[in-house]
Amino acid sequence: MILPTKAMATQELTVKRKPSENTLQVQASSPVPLGVRIPTVALHMMELFDTTVEQLYSIFTVKDLTNKKIVMKWRCRNWPEEHYATVALNFVPTLGQTELQLECKGVPVCKEENVKFCWQKQHFEEIKGLLQLTPLNG
C-alpha cells in the first residue's frame, strides 16, 4: 500500500505582536523537517517477473518509462504516523523476464520481517497474479 507523505515544513514562523499595534510581524527561520526519529534498517529484495520491463513498470505508475527506476516514500499503516521509508524500485531486463530490485531504507528496527512479508505477499504475488490475467501485449 502506498500512502501519501506529509509535507515537510519549509519554514518555522515566529509571530510577534507589539503591544501598541494591531499588526503582526512574521519572521521565517531555518527549515524544520517533520517526522519521527526511530532506529531504522535498510532492506534489499529481488523478484523475477515473466513480463517486460515496460509492462511491469506500468503497474506501478502511469508515467513514461524513462530511467527504469521509481523512487517513492512508503509506510506501513502501523508505523508512527509521520515515519516513511524511501523505496527504490529498479527494473532490470533479463532474458524473457524482468528482475525487480527493491531497496527500502528507513524500515523501523524489528519490522524487517513484516515489511518483507508485505512486499512479497501483498505486492509481488498480487502482481504475478495480475500478469497471468493480462496478455503481454494487452
TrEMBL record:
Protein family: Belongs to the AHA1 family.
Name of this protein: Activator of Hsp90 ATPase homologue 1/2-like C-terminal domain-containing protein
Upper classification of the organism: Eukaryota, Metazoa, Chordata, Craniata, Vertebrata
Residue span, Activator of Hsp90 ATPase homologue 1/2-like C-terminal domain: 67-131
